[in-house]
Structure formats: C-alpha cells, structure tokens
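Field reference: "sequence" (input) and "structure" (output). Example, ABC transporter permease:
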Amino acid sequence: MARDMVIRISEGVRRQFTQERFIAAEYDRAYSLTSMILFFFSASTVGWLWEVFLHIFIDGAIINRGTTWGPWLPIYGVGGVMTLVLLKRFADKPLHVFVFAYVGSGILEYTTGWALEQFRGVKYWDYSESLFNINGRVCLEVLALFAVGACAILYIAAPVMDDLFRKIPRTGKIVLCVVLITLFTVDLVFSAIYPKMGPGITMDVSETTRWIF
C-alpha cells in the first residue's frame, strides 16, 4: 500500500517535471536563421492582413496598406524578430517582456515614422486624434496593443510557427527564404523608385504633425 502510494507520488512528480520542461521548451528555444527569416515574412504578412481588414471594417474599402507594394508590412516583421532576439532572455518574467516590448515598440514605430516623413515627406499613419500621442507617430493605446502582441509572439505564435517551419525539409526552407528575400528586395527597390502613396495610405505631414497629451 505504502509502496503503491510512493510510486504514484513519484509518477506525479515526474509528470509535473516533464510538463514544466515542455512548457519551458515552448518558448525557451534557439531559433534557426531560416526560421527567423520565415517568421519575419509571416509577421509582416499577418500585419498587412490586419491593417487591410481593419480598413475594410472602418472605411469599407480594400486598401493596400504599407510602404511597399507587396503583401507585407516590414515594421511588423522587424518588431516580431526583435521580440525573439532581444526579449527571449526575459521570457521567465512576463511583466518585463511587456514593459520592454512597450518601450521598444514605441522607439521602433516613432523612428520609422520619422524616417518616412523625412525621406518621403508624408505620413503613413497618424495618431494625432488619440490621447497621449507624440507627433502623431505613437500613442498610448496602440503601443499597449503592440506590447500584448509581442507577448503573444514570444509565448505562443513563434514556438508554434517554428514547429511548423521545422517540418519543412532544409533544402526547401533555404529555397523559400531565398525566393522571399529576392522578391522583398525587388519590392524595396521598386517602392523606393515609385513610392506607394494616396488616399488611405499617406497624408500630408504639415497637416498632421502636433503633440497631444
């Protein structure tokens, strides 16, 4: 009787330890270069779809959002990769991840918005009507959404997608990465020569730049 109880307790401890190790392995893993590249394009495409469907809901129109012509928004891909590269070391402290993602998203979005305004003379997004915004480039509520998204990426999306990427044969992954990088490079060059602008995509800088607190 006592022996059976000890066995059951030992088995329970073993299962708990295995479960904890499994959970930790879900996000505390090393991502390969090919997985990072594929994740960049996946996050960029998901971000593009999010903004396209958002404008369908708000404006009732299909608008090819973003600074490039392809079906991707690079800022989302950069943010997703930065989350894995910079914040994975803090994965056991979710509050730290949230705060760092909040600040990091603000820096990324503000500097990207500023650079686009300087080089193209237009704004691709504007939060001037939102409370607690800085020059319309960042605002409180959107950064909070990005921080939540970063946590979802680190703890859920990235491990699940990495498991899927690992099922692709190595040669196939390399070919896919090369094709995507080539298409993306062509799109960047084309977009630099023929910038994507127009209603629902860009707006005049002089009419929107101001601080609201």
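Residues 30 and 84 are 10 Å apart (CA to CA).
Strands lie at 122-123, 133-134, 138-139, 203-204.
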